[in-house]
Amino acid sequence: MSERGALRARLDLLAREVAKFGVVGAVGLVVNIGVSNLLWRYTDIPTVRAGLMATFVAILFNYVGFRYWTYRDRDKSGRTRELTLFLLFSAVGAVIETGVLYAATYGFGWNSPVQSNVFKILGIGIATMFRFWSYRTWVFRALPDKDVAVNDVVVNDVAVNDVAVAAEDAALPGPAVSVPAPAPAATVRVEADSARR
């Protein structure tokens, strides 16, 4: 595949990932804003504390959406590590999100329902950029490359197919070593998106 084709394929995968992340995030936004408004309207919980509680409800919803839809093709080998990192980065995102709401509410005195919603959404937007980067980089790790050449052998950082190494070339004392040539090259291709099958 040419460099241009490879770049286009990577950008297409990134666009699909961003779209799926956006869908899960949009539903999480509705959950977050809905729970916030319910708590603000029907309880005496302070604005920022209610917003933080709503954020954690949305975080739980988002984990399920990200794990089982957006990043379903990513590495699933370390769920404890994954969940721990997800909660850690989500907490950092919650601090960013709640920090914006806190500054608006207590720093500027903007705490009407409309103002609270505006700054809640602004905080979510800022935190979303951090979450997207951290989730895709650290939490939902990509699987290894999909194309693997089966019979390539690496000798002194050089990939070769038919290996015949002389002892003096390998800087080893003794007679020359001959390695038989492997079977013809075979390439294994693994599809990243099972929905395309």
Summed up:
With 197 residues, the protein is mainly alpha-helical.
Task: Report on this structure.
By secondary structure, the chain is mainly alpha-helical. Helices cover 61% and strands 8% of the residues. It contains four helices and six strands. The strands form three sheets. Strands 1-6 form a two-stranded antiparallel sheet. Strands 2-3 form a two-stranded antiparallel ribbon. Strands 4-5 form a two-stranded antiparallel ribbon. Helix 2 (47-70) runs antiparallel to helix 3 and helix 3 (79-107) runs antiparallel to helix 4 (113-139). The longest helix has 40 residues, at 3-42. 20% of the residues are buried. Mean pLDDT is 80; it is low at 148-174 and 193-197.
Break the fold down into its secondary structure elements and pairings.
Elements: H1 3-42, H2 47-70, H3 79-107, H4 113-139, E1 147-149, E2 153-155, E3 158-160, E4 164-165, E5 177-178, E6 187-189
Antiparallel strand pairs: 1-6, 2-3, 4-5
How many beta-strand runs?
6
> Could you tell me the strand content as a percent range?
5-15%
Tell me the Rg in angstroms.
Answer: 25 Å
Helix percentage range: 55-70%
- How would you describe the shape? elongated
Q: Tell me about the biggest sheet? A: 2 strands, antiparallel
Number of helices: 4
Assembly type of the chains comes to single chain
Secondary-structure element sequence?
HHHHEEEEEE
- Report the uncertain regions: 148-174, 193-197
Whole-number average pLDDT? 80
Class computed from helices, strands and strand pairing: mainly alpha
Query: What order do the strands of the largest sheet run in, or round the barrel if closed?
Result: 1-6
